[in-house]
């Protein structure tokens, strides 16, 4: 599988530890250094299942042949590119027949929820109808709408087959340490992220497109 915009490799390493062959693409030098150090610290059996490629997610065609992967992940990457359609098209070209494209995006239809839950009423009012927001570093990044991403997936021949809400309850709260409280939170999130109306107000959306 291919993980585009792998960040510090947390997700890719978890998948490699689970027995999957994972290729990660990342362009940020600090993230690359962190993920390479993390991979180097793993046992040989896990290191052999991980490949790290320096590159931009929009240039996957430079590194790989079309149809090279049965699963392509891009979790959070669309938020940070000015032309998300070009990135999506590149991801779609990497999918083999029967493959799955997994995206995580910020939910533009719920941008008012986070400031509202923090009693930031000015921020909540400004977020209605917006397509961008400020991330933790203060940078302006993109948010996306379910219908629009669904249409884009259909346009690259990987139509939407399933979608889920991510961080329905926990966006404006601190995540507890490992233990019973965290287990209960994860159980509540997992259930809410799959049912209406809760998943539609999640701070992020997990969308899966399938290639015939």
From TrEMBL:
<dbReference type="InterPro" id="IPR013216">
    <property type="entry name" value="Methyltransf_11"/>
</dbReference>
<dbReference type="InterPro" id="IPR029063">
    <property type="entry name" value="SAM-dependent_MTases_sf"/>
</dbReference>
<feature type="domain" description="Methyltransferase type 11">
    <location>
        <begin position="2"/>
        <end position="102"/>
    </location>
</feature>
<protein>
    <submittedName>
        <fullName>Methyltransferase</fullName>
    </submittedName>
</protein>
<dbReference type="GO" id="GO:0008168">
    <property type="term" value="F:methyltransferase activity"/>
</dbReference>
<keyword id="KW-0489">Methyltransferase</keyword>
<dbReference type="GO" id="GO:0032259">
    <property type="term" value="P:methylation"/>
</dbReference>
<dbReference type="Pfam" id="PF08241">
    <property type="entry name" value="Methyltransf_11"/>
</dbReference>
<keyword id="KW-0808">Transferase</keyword>
